[in-house]
Specification:
alpha/beta, D-Maltodextrin-Binding Protein, domain 2, seven-stranded mixed β-sheet, 11 strands, 23% strand, LysR family transcriptional regulator, chromosome initiation inhibitor, LysR_subst-bd
Length: 263
């Protein structure tokens, strides 16, 4: 492998890898990884047309998605396509603010992001708005926010955040209650479903997509702590520009589904 890397670097007349542990691609290395993903996808789509019937392999599509989209609308949107075509998804879950990095690094050919501007060689379409509500159980609200949310009560109540890079809850409490970005209690949980579970168990309050908790809100199991004052994030579907094939089918399916479920 190292010999092939050296040959490639000789061909492009510059390093493609940063020799550290683990190795990281250089800027040109990331572009080559992206090119490899495109060529691989085109090969996977073309080869079945050249093979005898019944001998074609599935097309693998790496998608960089945020956990909330994965937990709500993404899989239902792609279900008809997965049933109709030999398709394998490789889902890379992370934060929607940084998901485009996966396309830059060559790890993904599709990304769900809050960034409206496409990368070079890519296209971006508007999906819709994901509406987040700050919720808890009625019992949690009575215990920690008996007189409503304010700087003092919010600083003492346990919240939930996705990871150390997740700034949604940080911005929510700092903008509304003038709190610092650190110093308040929070659990760190890298699972959208676990956010809901912890809220329903009454051990924390958190920001959850309305789409994910409509039933709990209707039954009163969870309550909106800040009615009319949630968080909205606009989502965009980024993908390599293509005239047709599975990426075009996937884009059409997701845009059509998202129009009906996202605000």
């Amino acid at each position: 492998m190292s010999q092939r890397i050296k040959q490639l670097e000789k061909l492009v007349a510059q390093p493609v890898l940063i020799r550290e542990n683990p190795p990281q691609p250089t800027a040109i290395g990331r572009k080559l990884l992206g090119l490899h993903q495109r060529v691989q996808l085109l090969e996977q789509e073309l080869i079945p047309e050249l093979m005898p019937e019944g001998q074609s392999s599935a097309v693998t599509v790496p998608i960089s998605t945020n956990a909330d989209s994965l937990a709500t609308w993404l899989l239902p949107a792609l279900t008809p396509l997965m049933k109709a075509q030999a398709l394998e998804l490789s889902l890379i879950v992370g934060d929607e603010v940084r998901s485009l990095n996966r396309i830059r690094s060559g790890e993904a050919v599709v990304a769900i992001s809050t960034e409206p501007n496409p990368l070079h060689g890519c296209s971006a379409q508007y999906l819709g708005k994901m509406e987040y509500l700050c919720v808890s159980t009625p019992e949690f609200k009575a215990r920690f926010f008996p007189n409503g949310m304010n700087a003092e009560t919010v600083s003492k109540a346990p919240a939930v955040v996705f990871d150390r890079l997740d700034d949604m809850h940080t911005l929510f409490v700092s903008e509304r209650f003038n709190l610092p970005t650190v110093g308040w209690r929070s659990h760190m949980v890298r699972s959208s479903e676990a956010f809901v579970k912890m809220a329903k168990l009454g051990v924390a309050y958190c920001l959850i997509p309305r789409l994910q908790i409509e039933q709990e809100l209707s039954t009163g199991e969870l309550v909106d702590l800040c009615p009319g004052d949630g968080v909205t994030r606009q989502l965009y579907w980024h993908h390599f520009s293509t005239e047709g094939g599975v990426l075009a089918d996937m884009t059409e399916a997701c845009l059509r589904y998202a129009r009906n479920v996202l605000a």
